[in-house]
Design brief:
This protein has 2 domains: 2-173, HUPs (Rossmann fold, 3-Layer(aba) Sandwich), CATH 3.40.50.620; 186-278, Pantoate--beta-alanine Ligase, Chain: A,domain 2, CATH 3.30.1300. It is an alpha/beta fold. Strands 1-4-3-2-5-6 form a 6-stranded parallel β-sheet, with helices on both faces. It has helices at 7-19, 35-47, 75-84, 95-98, 116-120, 124-139, 151-163, 193-198, 201-214, 220-234, and strands at residues 2-4, 24-29, 50-55, 89-91, 143-147, 169-173, 238-246, 258-267, 272-281. The termini are far apart. Helix 7 (151-163) links the parallel strand 5 (143-147) and strand 6 (169-173). The protein is globular, with a radius of gyration of 19 Å. The longest helix is centred in the middle third of the chain and has 16 residues, at 124-139. ATP binds at residues 30-37, 147-150, 176, 184-187.
């Protein structure tokens, strides 16, 4: 495994691989790797000749009230994990390497961003789309892998790839969970012990909503109410949102039919957790 820190070396390395007929699979990360990331890497390893991961904490996607400097980092541990998973290259550029000067062009996301997490983070997905456009051009993969825990991000990336005709296949990979159902996340380390005990209720509430729908319930308010009641009664978290939209367009729907997402975000004392389930509803 090789660590690459410059754009020039990364592009040169990819060119050599492509010239020899090798396929490239890519997993973008901000580091502090956990089992969710490793599942993405494992999927990429099984489908490609060369696997590249990037470890880059992107300042463009942090809002003015979000602390870029406090995002968890442990590059040496990340490097060890990546090597165990059979990663070929880690692209680990500095902020100065990725943004050596003020950008003359950035990407503006117009759809799928004014709901869910995007509602309270107005410039977040512009930052995500801008850095991914740069990374896609640097690494030039055939396939790129994202976890569906951040389903809104997957929807935005699919829109980016489709609208700009980027020759990459986006591979969504199901959320990896702890044994008690909590979605794995780099931010889980910030939960207090009591909050960690309570956090699985988020997924339990989504499963309760799914059960209602499968049993025939179609009332939005009732479904959201069940989720809200469980979280309020069984956790100390403050609900940021509980929403139901079409997926991947993330548009409001009058009827619960087709492919939908039920998504939520809950704020604990030091961390905000997100989770979701995606369902395909077919009326008989």
């Amino acid at each position: 495994m090789r660590v690459i820190t410059t754009i020039e070396e990364m592009q040169s390395t990819i060119t050599q691989a492509k010239n020899s007929g090798q396929s490239i699979g890519y997993v973008p990360t901000m580091g502090f790797l956990h089992e969710g990331h490793l599942t993405l890497i494992e999927k990429a390893r099984g489908e490609n000749d060369v696997v590249v991961i990037s470890i880059f904490v992107n300042p463009l996607q942090f809002g003015p009230t979000e602390d870029f400097s406090s995002y968890p980092r442990d590059f040496e541990h990340d490097k060890w994990l990546a090597e165990q998973q059979g990663v070929d290259f880690i692209f680990h550029p500095s902020v100065e390497e990725m943004y050596p000067r003020s950008s003359s062009v950035t990407v503006k996301v117009n759809e799928r961003t004014d709901v869910l997490c995007g509602k309270s983070r107005p410039d977040h997905f512009d930052g995500v789309a801008t850095v991914l456009t740069k990374l896609f051009n640097i690494i030039q993969p055939e396939k790129v892998y994202f976890g569906t825990k951040d389903a809104q991000q997957v929807a935005v990336v699919e829109g980016l790839v489709n609208d700009f005709h980027i020759p990459i296949k986006v591979i969504p990979v199901e959320t990896v969970r702890e044994s008690d159902g909590l979605a794995k996340s780099s931010r889980n380390v910030n939960l207090l012990p009591k909050e960690r005990e309570q956090a699985p209720v988020l997924y339990q509430s989504l499963l309760s909503a799914k059960k209602l729908i499968l049993e025939g319930e179609r009332n939005h308010e009732k479904i959201i109410s069940i989720i809200k009641e469980m979280i309020t009664e069984k956790t100390d978290g403050i609900i940021d949102y509980i929403d139901i939209y079409s997926y991947p367009m993330l548009e409001e729907i009058q009827l619960l039919e087709g492919k939908i997402i039920i998504a939520l975000a809950v704020k604990f004392s030091k961390v905000r957790l997100i989770d979701n389930i995606i369902l395909e509803i077919s009326e008989k």
